[in-house]
Amino acid sequence: MIRFYNTAILPFRLAAGAWGRWQILASRHRREWEERLAQRLPEAPPGAVWIHGSSVGEARIVRGLASGLRRRRAELPIVASAYTATGRAQLPRHPEIDAAFFMPLDFSGLPSRVLKALRPVAIVLVETELWPNLLREADRAAVSVVVVNGRLSERRMVSYRRFAKLYQPLLSALAAVGAQSEEDARRFRELGAPPDAVSVTGNVKYDLPSPRIDPAGLRRRLGLSADRPVFVAGSTGRGEDRPVLEAFGLARRRHPTLLLVLAPRHPERFDDVEQQVRSAGLRVERLSAENPSIGTDVILVDTIGELLQLYSVAAAAFVGGSLVPVGGHNVLEPAVVDVPVLFGPHTENVAEPASELERAGGALRTADARELGEAVAKLISEPERSKRLVENARRVLAGNRGALDRSLRIVLEAVDASTRRAEAGFR
What we know:
Blueprint: H1 2-8, H2 10-26, H3 30-36, E1 49-52, H4 56-72, E2 78-82, H5 85-90, E3 99-102, H6 110-118, E4 122-126, H7 132-140, E5 144-150, H8 154-162, H9 164-171, E6 176-179, H10 182-191, E7 198-200, H11 215-221, E8 230-236, H12 241-254, E9 259-264, H13 270-279, E10 284-286, E11 298-300, H14 307-311, E12 316-319, H15 332-336, E13 341-343, H16 351-359, E14 363-365, H17 369-381, H18 383-399, H19 403-426
Parallel strand pairs: 1-2, 1-4, 2-3, 4-5, 5-6, 6-7, 8-9, 8-12, 9-11, 10-11, 12-13, 13-14
């Protein structure tokens, strides 16, 4: 079945190869494409743990795992990769880890080049990074693969079931799977992961530390007076900015000085979102333009890695990808910085934490722009209600911690098992 997969993606391989070579020759994204095409290989001592997370959210988990491994096994080399440019920018750097790089494209032979260069003792995949050629070539190289914070939504399972003959033999070689929930664990077993290798470790995002925040300094940077309320809409997806702007307009009827901090999920959308804001008759400035004017209506976040800090100045925070059928993004981030959490009806990708928060009264689910606008206005007008949401969310966070330690335990068990096998092979 892997041959069929590689035959099917051959046109994409040819196109990606041509595009990558052009990018390298043009020196626009030389290093990125040299790494994606496995022409530039990472350098690290042999026997490293290779941790991979796709984008910004997973990169925070990569950082937590790397830090935990450093504390427990200081002598263990650690390398990290990401798939997206935004994720790559958020990976930890030396001396936190020994090397950081772009994950090679999942074309036959490319993962093997990285495996030969690194000779890792184990690969740790965060959440749903189940790349067929990477899994096959790691198995052939006798490298243990561990999935941590494993998540499989029902929508993803539709595709995985369609290609069950491809995934079942690949997942059967996994050394361990730490799933976020019992439902995720069941789906991994259904796909072919060894039943006794799958356990429920919980969601590592509950354990990620709060960033160091200077609220007064951040408000000065944003040009905010001490009493000006802020509504932050983070990680918005295509088709979601317009209803967010509508909700902002509704909330401003009751709070005329309200500021919207709007953070699109993907950098390539910045220009389009800025045009949408201007078309709505609103004054907009970019976060990268230091010292926005006091009179601006919207600050467009066009930087990477600052969203969590920006949530901290909000009276209410909406987590995007949820008013449109994307599946939602990290609903825990505003809760971590003690800000009321709002999200829409589409939370399949974050089903467990969204449900936990909602059941505990630690977040509000809104169906559309009107409900979102009303919720923002009420949270600003009713500080006691806002305080209850924050306190309830704190209890949810406290009650679900421990997933990072459990995840580190299964990673180190796989590392130790690999080390024992290697030592036995030399005897």
